Amino acid sequence: ARAVFKYNKGRGAHQQSLLVDLTGVPPQSPIPKSAGRIKEGASKYTGVSFIQQRNEWVAQVMIESKRYIIGYYESEEEAAVDYARAIFKYKGGVCQQSFVVDLTDVPPQSPILKTERRIKEGASKYTGVSFHKHLNKWLAQIMIEGKVRRVGVYENEEEAAVDYARAVFKYRGQGALDNAREQRARDTSMVDAFTFDLTDVPPQPPVPKSAGHINEGASKYTG
Predict the structure, then answer these.
(1) Could you give the CA distance from residue 100 to residue 117 in angstroms, rounded to a whole number?
(2) 91 to 33, 66, 87: CA distances (angstroms)
(3) Which terminal Cβ of the chain has fewer Cβ within 10 Å, N or C?
């Protein structure tokens, strides 16, 4: 910093102005991008990008038409949380609030279960619900007019699922709830219809994939 100050004629002070102070700002839920706006290799959260040279995530926010650096992070989620905190502090939570769904006076609704084959390990068994590792809580989100809107953050998975169903009821109507449940019933019946009976079939060696077809974290076996 002293070298920057000396050889860039004091512009080190300008560098400091690009750092956002989040002291005393409470945790905020990350602001996810809508699915159609996530480019390959990019962050799924607003205000976050990956810096290959540093091998870190950076969080940045626009304030009065100027870009401010919030910080650099090893975790994408931590960067997203601090971006949301910066929005809360410097923009009064306006951007954050635009992603919050108002469920006042909306009656309770039954959660929408996913079909078993669509439930990944560690994921929620309910539609519209995911677990947020950084917050250590369940997050309910819904897509409305092409944008992902946050329903809420919950200690309990079932509560998150109920509120997601309430949001569907409010913003898409009873028909959308009925369609979602009917689709699950159809998917379940299809799974049952395609269940193979392997009674009396002798053991067989697994069929390995070719090395070039194994994605990171995927199985090395076909099927």
Answers:
(1) 30
(2) 18, 13, 5
(3) C
